[in-house]
Amino acid sequence: MAKLVYGMVTSLDGYAVPADGDLGAGAEDEEVHTYIGDLFRDLGTYLYGRRMYETMVFWETAHAEPEAPPHIVQYARDWQAAEKVVYSTTLESVSSERTRIERTFDPGAVRRLKDESEQDLSVDGPTLAAQAIAAGLVDEYHLFITTSVVGGGTRFFPDGVRLDLDLVGTRAFAGGLIHAHYRTR
């Protein structure tokens, strides 16, 4: 059975999407980007909401940019090789290969996908992840914590859900970003 993992850059005060501005420096650093690429290279399927998909579809053509460094090309190739499921009631079509649209998030269907998959899956974006967390589907969490406090926005973890987690490991980067990896107890 495959695991469902949730990982995102988050502010020091726990926001994955800030109300205003950005999450601060750190995630765009080559060392961090390479680390994230290596960490998630073997994912077989990405589960996205519409907004996250529209952000990530950049990777469908990123490898073709003339100035793209090797770590960007590698991440693009890995992203292209994975299946993508986009949960949206408004998206009419997708612009990436190996991608399908589902109109509703069905926890039972995701459980079956986990059971049938040989490779781990990722749920991306705090809104969709909140549904997966509430349904008890997420097995691992990867927080990439910046040094910024943003004061508001959409939290990495949803309100109203209790989780007891085991710390698997941490890594600090020169620019101040910290990776914290947790597993569901």
TrEMBL record:
InterPro entries for this protein: DHFR-like_dom_sf (IPR024072), RibDG_C (IPR002734)
Pfam families given in the database record: RibD_C (PF01872)
Domain Bacterial bifunctional deaminase-reductase C-terminal: 3-177
Gene Ontology biological process terms from the UniProt entry: riboflavin biosynthetic process
UniProt superkingdom: Bacteria
Gene3D superfamilies: Dihydrofolate Reductase, subunit A
Molecular functions per Gene Ontology: 5-amino-6-(5-phosphoribosylamino)uracil reductase activity
Protein name, UniProt field: Dihydrofolate reductase
Species in which this protein is naturally found: Blastococcus aggregatus
Lineage: Bacteria, Bacillati, Actinomycetota, Actinomycetes, Geodermatophilales
